[in-house]
Amino acid sequence: MEATKVLDAKGFACPMPIVKTKKAIGELEKGQVLEVHTTDKGAKNDLTAWAKSGGHEVLKHEEENGVLTFWIKKG
């Protein structure tokens, strides 16, 4: 999936992945996609809930070798 911007939030614990994601998505235009990489297991629920509450859309997420990757479309 093509992302406009990639955010490396690996190694950070809650709430830093959300804080960094919020800052990064603020730099995008509506409709652009942010790719987020994190090792925080809580991010699966946290990022999904945060995106929904902010009017953004989680297009896809996957986990590989302990790294969660999310593609979030800015609403």
From TrEMBL:
Organism, as annotated: Metabacillus rhizolycopersici
Family designation: Belongs to the sulfur carrier protein TusA family.
Protein name: Sulfurtransferase TusA family protein
Transmembrane feature ranges: none
PANTHER family: SULFUR CARRIER PROTEIN YEDF-RELATED (PTHR33279)
Pfam families according to UniProt: TusA
InterPro entries xrefs: TusA-like, TusA-like_sf
Chain ranges of the UPF0033 domain: 7-31
